[in-house]
UniProtKB/TrEMBL annotation:
<keyword id="KW-0808">Transferase</keyword>
<dbReference type="InterPro" id="IPR006130">
    <property type="entry name" value="Asp/Orn_carbamoylTrfase"/>
</dbReference>
<dbReference type="GO" id="GO:0005737">
    <property type="term" value="C:cytoplasm"/>
</dbReference>
<dbReference type="InterPro" id="IPR002292">
    <property type="entry name" value="Orn/put_carbamltrans"/>
</dbReference>
<feature type="binding site">
    <location>
        <begin position="270"/>
        <end position="271"/>
    </location>
    <ligand>
        <name>carbamoyl phosphate</name>
    </ligand>
</feature>
<feature type="domain" description="Aspartate/ornithine carbamoyltransferase Asp/Orn-binding">
    <location>
        <begin position="154"/>
        <end position="308"/>
    </location>
</feature>
<feature type="binding site">
    <location>
        <position position="298"/>
    </location>
    <ligand>
        <name>carbamoyl phosphate</name>
    </ligand>
</feature>
<dbReference type="Pfam" id="PF02729">
    <property type="entry name" value="OTCace_N"/>
</dbReference>
<dbReference type="InterPro" id="IPR024904">
    <property type="entry name" value="OTCase_ArgI"/>
</dbReference>
<dbReference type="InterPro" id="IPR006131">
    <property type="entry name" value="Asp_carbamoyltransf_Asp/Orn-bd"/>
</dbReference>
<feature type="domain" description="Aspartate/ornithine carbamoyltransferase carbamoyl-P binding">
    <location>
        <begin position="4"/>
        <end position="148"/>
    </location>
</feature>
<feature type="binding site">
    <location>
        <begin position="135"/>
        <end position="138"/>
    </location>
    <ligand>
        <name>carbamoyl phosphate</name>
    </ligand>
</feature>
<keyword id="KW-0963">Cytoplasm</keyword>
<dbReference type="Pfam" id="PF00185">
    <property type="entry name" value="OTCace"/>
</dbReference>
<dbReference type="InterPro" id="IPR036901">
    <property type="entry name" value="Asp/Orn_carbamoylTrfase_sf"/>
</dbReference>
<dbReference type="GO" id="GO:0016597">
    <property type="term" value="F:amino acid binding"/>
</dbReference>
<feature type="binding site">
    <location>
        <position position="108"/>
    </location>
    <ligand>
        <name>carbamoyl phosphate</name>
    </ligand>
</feature>
Length: 312
């Protein structure tokens, strides 16, 4: 059994992370075979996942909703307009109420503390569907994508370009757990959180991987099996976009940066993308790009996660 909540990629032991990826791959194969096996048994019949979202979403929301439907259950989407968490109703009371009706909560929040409060007061599993600190469901889908392409995760090298943000944090932590090295190249003022970096380095020391941060994109890209980037201004930081653009321009992923990596290197992005800002159209729409595999894999990992958290 895994722990009750999934708030951080670091909540997973190596065994739990490997089991989740294995289960997601099996569910994917079943789904592509026409919904056979576990799908046909509708293990989530009568079960509801509440989606408490303070920010917009395409992938995370649809992957959870479709995933619940495909396993016989249901998703209930609650935007800030519907429940105004912390305004109309306190965060603990939202958790206490939902715990009486539904079987799990997926929450997308501005402050990571909000999701910790939800988890503290809920009697059902709470899943981090993105916070300012982490995006662990994304990292699971990304590592499943790498495992499919390379047949393994252990020993791979990923270069992350740009903002040391939530996506970067979860990649470093899950990479550290599963033995994937991460080299981050970012402007000096946008480094990943020092505490998370130290945590990822401690995990990496156990799994024969390394975690590094540099200001030099070419240095990070050297020898990389995948180059990953994300938007330069995350949700809630849109007002900083113009100021950030010149600072991040040297970290744009373009054909010349891709050439610094291994010839077989993949291009990865969590999406949504700002084409010709953090990555050129040529790269994201080119043959090395696996961004829609990453998006598809959100479905499979999130299904595996819900089944596991519900003890099914
Ligand atoms: N990658 C991702 O989480 O996408 P959404 O914001 O659309 O859910
Ligand atoms: N870093 C981005 C990821 C979006 C999926 C954000 O937080 O907006």
């Amino acid at each position: 059994m895994m722990q009750k909540h999934f708030l951080s990629a670091a909540d997973l032991s190596r065994e739990a992370a490997e089991a989740l990826l294995g289960r997601a791959a099996a569910l994917k194969a079943e789904w592509h075979a026409g919904g056979t096996g576990l799908h046909a048994a509708w293990p989530l019949r009568g079960k509801t996942l509440a989606l408490v979202f303070e920010k917009p979403s395409l992938r995370t929301r649809v992957a959870f909703e479709a995933g619940m439907t495909q396993l016989g259950g249901n998703g209930s989407y609650l935007s800030a307009n519907d429940i105004d968490m912390g305004g109309r109703e306190s965060v603990p009371d939202v958790a206490r109420n939902l715990s009486r009706w539904v079987q799990a909560i997926a929450a997308r929040v501005f402050k990571h503390g909000t999701i910790e409060t939800l988890a503290r007061h809920a009697t059902i599993p709470v899943i981090n569907a993105l916070s300012d600190r982490e995006h662990p469901c994304q990292a699971l889908a990304d590592l499943l994508t790498l495992r499919e392409r390379f047949g393994r995760v252990q020993g791979l090298r990923l270069a992350y370009m740009g903002d040391g943000n939530n996506v970067c944090h979860s990649l470093m932590l899950l990479g550290g757990i599963l033995g994937m090295s991460v080299a981050v190249a970012c402007p000096p003022d946008y480094r990943p959180d020092a505490e998370i970096l130290a945590h990822a380095q401690a995990l990496a020391a156990e799994s024969d991987a390394t975690m590094s941060v540099t200001a030099n994109p070419a240095e990070a890209a050297e020898g990389a099996d995948a180059i990953y980037t994300d938007v330069w201004a995350s949700m809630g930081q849109e007002h900083e976009a113009a100021r950030r653009r010149p600072v991040f321009q040297p970290y744009q992923v373009n054909a010349s940066l891709m050439h610094q990596a291994n010839p077989t290197a993949l291009f990865m992005h969590c999406l949504p993308v700002h084409r010709d800002e953090e990555v050129t159209s040529e790269v994201i729409d080119g043959p090395q790009s696996v961004v829609f595999d990453q998006a598809e894999n959100r479905l499979h990992v999130q299904k595996a996660l819900i089944l596991t958290l519900l003890g099914l």
